Amino acid sequence: MLQTPIEFLSGVGPNRANLLKQELNIFSFQDLLHFFPHRYIDRSKFYKINEFPQNNSEVQLKGSIISVKTTNQKKGKRLIAVFSDGNQKMELIWFRGHQWIKKNLKTNVPYVIFGRLSWYAGKPSMPHPEMETEGSFNKGFSKSLQAVYPSTEKLLSKGISQKVISKMIMELLNSLKIPFFETLPPGIIDKYKFANKNEALINIHFPKSQEKLTAALNRLKYEELFFIQLQLLIKNLQHKQKIKGYIFQKIGAKFNTFFEQNLPFDLTKAQKKVVKEIRKDMGSGQQMNRLLQGDVGSGKTIVALMIMLIALDNNFQSCLMAPTEILAKQHFQSLKDLIGKLDISIALLTGSTKKSERIILAEKLESGTLDILIGTHAVIEDAVKFKNLGLAIVDEQHRFGVAQRAKLWRKNTLPPHVLVMTATPIPRTLAMSVYGDLDISVIDELPPGRKRIKTLHYYDNNRLKVFKFISDEIKKGRQIYIVYPLIQESEKMDYKDLMDGYESISRAFPPPKYQISIVHGKMKVKDKDYEMDRFIKKQTQIMVATTVIEVGVNVPNASTMVIESAERFGLSQLHQLRGRVGRGNNQSFCILMSSHQLSSDAKTRMETMTTSTDGFKIAEVDLKLRGPGDLMGTQQSGVLQLKIADIIKDSQWLKTARNDAYELLRLDSKMEDPENRPLRQTLAKMKAFKNIWNYIS
Ligand code: ADP
Ligand code: MG
């Protein structure tokens, strides 16, 4: 019944149906029923003209029309009606649709009008009011809260107004008659005093009171989040039951020798904890599917190495995939340094690896003489075949989608264990929604002895002060990064800014006393490497760069990160950049330079950076500013296309729904309890449809 195409609803012909499909993605009764309002207006209050708020708010009043006239003004024709509330008068104005409106306006008949106020020279008027005779208003469906639906210009111009949408939904509800199928177990409905399904669907469109609306909203939001979580958790459970994994039982010579001889420092408690969690997964007989979260500098690299050594001790190869060439190279270098003289063969494969080298690499991989492969997504190309890949680590940086991850699995008979590392922290709520099917480990502690990076915000006119600061740091023997934005759309301008900046810095810090490196995306790899190398060897004191260094370099002697036009960077990028300093024992600094003109979001970003160094906290603010879709990139936004819930505003419901789904599966994993029957039925229906709201019929 609910699958009936929308054109079969009375009052909706083929023309309207086409508009609804094109503009609102409404194809069936089902879609219309779940086309939710985005806000509500209060139609229970009536204003008098002399009580109007002095702003452009929406008001409703009763009264009648005294006169109607058409005027010709410079900006075009207008239809003006003088409206009286019995004491005062105001003008109602129409810019379009004059003939039709004029024909229908009745003078001296009581009307209820509603609309947004407009003020001119201290006098109120109301353009394009919604009007209804008092008689029809009193008969109408909603006298208190009225739903407002998302709409488009095109719909409005074709006469599909809010009123028309409401009428269609009313028509639908009346024609359906049968109560809707309850999808949640009674226990949950009681626990949160939710509206039942039927009441919820009626009150979401035609709320009988604020309380009923709240109960409906809460229920539908919860329901949406709950079923997503339930599906993700079931996927996770099934995965564990179905997908067998290699069993890494042994902790052998490679791991032990490394631990005893090469470990350069004591592991933090958090590092030990996650190594343990990962070891347990890899020994369980099921394939590991785990997300490792940790702030910049929390020490994820060594964790990655140690688990690759466990794979090796069990005679399996590993690979580590990074999002950029620079990062892949850096991983390769740091892992090589950590491995030292241990007998482990490790290689790097990126887009710029020469063909002749690739051939040798491929042979070594297939014969199993290569233990660890580090690289960019070049490592998942079809030509790359492992003898026995046991572990794949993905350093995600938001860029790799699940599809690419899955591709790795097919390299062998059994899928390798998969560990996804995020380079920037993801707020818990977001991680739950996007990675809900993965197990999550968190390194929530930085190695000891790190000094908190001091972050300062200066406006551009304080540049001399900043130069003085830089020269003092250089006197102490430290090195400085100065970073410029390079954003694709304005590449030419940005490039000029970078060069101008480089020139003025060169003037302020002239050779031979000072030496400056410069690195940007347009340089050849060879030249980039050369410039970076000079900086790493302390031959240059200042590195002027674009964001290519964001994930790149590790120079513990660098104490200061200056970020130019900081207002143009996003929070996670600023945090990543700041993470380039504070890697040694010296007090480090991050200086944000910006113009005076800051948007309120930019101000929030500057404030957040100067007051917090906690990546998880910063990620929460970032999520609030940018929204989930932007934060995760388009790849994952599908999971985030919610119809009624909002993972930021409703994060409390998300957590609750997640916990409930978890508890429920723990107690009744097959949902056999009669109480849980609605869930089982609903899930079965959901499988048949992509959209999770397509399950009731
Ligand atoms: P990230 O998590 O950002 O990848 P890295 O793995 O690059 O962090 O580690 C950052 C720095 O901290 C490196 O120089 C690394 O050697 C050092 N480090 C990692 N773990 C510890 C530890 N337990 N004690 C001291 N230093 C550590
Ligand atoms: Mg790292």
How does this model look, in words?
The protein is an alpha/beta fold and 697 residues long. The chain has four domains: 45-143, OB fold (Dihydrolipoamide Acetyltransferase, E2P) (Beta Barrel), CATH 2.40.50; 189-242 and 650-688, no CATH class; 253-443, P-loop containing nucleotide triphosphate hydrolases (Rossmann fold, 3-Layer(aba) Sandwich); 454-612, 3-Layer(aba) Sandwich (Rossmann fold). Helix 10 (253-262) runs antiparallel to helix 12. It is globular and about 95 Å long. The structure holds adenosine-5'-diphosphate and magnesium ion.
Strand percentage: 15-25%
Give the proportion of residues in helices. Answer: 40-55%
What structural class do you assign from the helix and strand content? alpha/beta
Strand arrangement across the biggest beta sheet: 6-7-4-3-2-5-8
Q: How many beta-strand elements? A: 22
Task: Assign an overall shape.
Answer: globular
Task: Supply the key terms.
globular, Rossmann fold, 697 residues, alpha/beta, 7-stranded parallel beta sheet, binds magnesium ion, 24 helices, 41% helix, 22 strands, 7-stranded mixed beta sheet
Topology:
Blueprint: H1 14-24, H2 29-33, E1 39-42, E2 58-73, E3 76-84, E4 89-94, H3 98-104, E5 111-116, E6 118-120, E7 123-127, E8 130-133, H4 134-139, E9 145-148, H5 153-157, H6 162-176, H7 186-192, H8 197-205, H9 210-242, H10 253-262, H11 269-282, E10 289-294, H12 300-313, E11 317-321, H13 325-339, E12 346-349, H14 355-367, E13 372-375, E14 389-395, H15 402-409, E15 417-422, H16 428-434, E16 439-443, E17 454-459, H17 463-475, E18 479-483, H18 491-508, E19 516-519, H19 525-536, E20 542-545, E21 558-563, H20 571-578, E22 589-594, H21 600-611, H22 615-632, H23 651-667, H24 677-688
Parallel strand pairs: 4-7, 10-15, 10-16, 11-13, 11-14, 12-13, 14-15, 17-22, 18-20, 18-21, 19-20, 21-22
Antiparallel strand pairs: 1-9, 2-3, 2-5, 3-4, 5-8, 6-7
Helix pairs in contact: 8-9, 9-23, 10-12, 11-12, 21-22
The protein binds adenosine-5'-diphosphate and magnesium ion.
